[in-house]
C-alpha cells in the first residue's frame, strides 16, 4: 500500500468515526484538538486503527503522536514492520 493510499484511508475513517470535516485534517494539525479526543475516544481510535490496518496498538504508542503527520508516520511504520514479519 502506498503512502498516499494509507493517508487517504486513514483520513476517511477519521472523518467517519469522529465526524470532523475532511478539510480540518491536515498534516500539521493537532490530532487530539482536531478530533476532540478524550480518553474514551482514544479507545475508539485504537479499535478503528486495528480493524482497518490489522495490527495491535499499545496505549504508549500515542505518547509521541501530536500531529496528523505523526499519526500517519506511526501507521506507515507499523505497516512496514508488519510486512517484514
TrEMBL record:
Q: Which Gene3D superfamilies match?
A: ACP-like (1.10.1200.10)
- Tell me which residues make up the Carrier domain: 1-79
Protein name per UniProt = Acyl carrier protein
Amino acid at each position: 500500500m502506498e503512502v498516499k493510499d494509507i493517508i487517504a484511508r486513514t483520513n476517511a475513517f477519521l472523518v467517519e468515526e469522529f465526524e470532523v470535516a475532511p478539510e480540518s485534517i491536515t498534516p500539521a494539525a493537532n490530532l487530539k484538538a482536531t478530533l476532540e479526543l478524550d480518553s474514551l475516544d482514544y479507545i475508539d481510535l485504537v479499535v478503528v486503527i486495528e480493524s482497518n490496518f490489522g495490527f495491535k496498538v499499545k496505549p504508549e504508542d500515542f505518547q509521541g503522536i501530536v500531529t496528523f503527520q505523526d499519526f500517519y508516520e506511526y501507521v506507515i511504520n507499523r505497516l512496514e514492520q508488519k510486512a517484514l514479519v
